[in-house]
Amino acid sequence: MSAVTSAPCPDTLIETEAGSLPARVYGARPAKGTAPLVLHLHGGAFTGGTLECGACMATLLAQAGAVVVSLDYPLACTNPFPYALTAAMGALAALHRRRTELAGRGAPLYVAGEEAGGNIAAGLAMMARDQQSVPLAGQILISPMLDPCLATNSLREAEAGSCGCKWADGWQRYLGSPDKAAHPYAAPLQSSRLQGLAPALVVSAEDCPLRDESVRYAEALAHAGVPAELHLIDGPTGWPDSVARPPAPRTGWADGLRAVFARFFETTRPRRRAPAPAA
């Protein structure tokens, strides 16, 4: 597979049935062969975040060999669940239609996201399974927000309690009403039906307040028979806030995470069948 550049193209628009969504493309279609094609979703606790906030992870994914389309999805301040998820599904379908143009013929399609974007990526994997409309090769969830209960040990250790913290506020805005917390697309960790999902790479850090949600979801996926890899990065990392900063070559966890992404792409990309022997 030819190398791709991690430099982002100028901002572009992804055309969906519901309208146009701003996006930024990292990498380029290889001259020969195909590259993984990734729909990436930035963090921001559902109520904030921009394409710039997603630049760190989008760059690392591109440097791992992918063509990355980072989506500026609608925020929950004015568009509660399922608006952002539905819009992202439209973008995923658009990428599937354009995958040859963007990443080469038969390019495997992935979803990826950090924090709130990781929640939406997990929801997209469920929708793709249920609708059987977009075949996914994998899902990459980076310290995803998965449980609105906010009662994990890692949150308590970080002194980021449920009252007034940004994640509590974000969940409230995203869900809109308490009954939405029971919907598996909104709160994937609450789902009782995880079978048949795309292979997952779940990444978090030892010092991340969202660590325990990541661990529990990876374990739940594996228990449901989904190929799931959990990767915990040693602290201190400052996750998830540091993920929203521009990538720096000297970031301690960047090189290792780039290699983890590359290995996941390699192990999950579909293998071409060998031609049948001549009669």
Describe this protein with a few key phrases.
279 residues, alpha/beta, 16% strand, disordered N terminus
Could you explain the architecture of this structure?
The chain is α/β, with parallel strands linked by helices. The chain is 32% helix and 16% strand. It is built from 8 helices and 8 strands; from the N terminus they run βββαβααβαβααβαβα. An 8-stranded mixed beta sheet has the order 1-2-4-3-5-6-7-8, with helices on both faces. A hairpin with a 2-residue loop joins strand 1 and strand 2. The longest helix is centred in the middle third of the chain and has 16 residues. The chain is globular. The protein starts with 11 loop residues before the first strand and ends in an 11-residue tail after the last helix.
Distance between the termini: 32 Å
Report the sheet with the most strands, covering strand number, pairing sense and barrel closure.
8 strands, mixed
Structural class: alpha/beta
Please state the CA-atom Rg, rounded to the nearest Å.
18 Å
Overall pLDDT, averaged? Answer: 90
Question: How is the largest sheet built, in terms of strand order?
Answer: 1-2-4-3-5-6-7-8
Helix content: 25-40%
Number of helices: 8
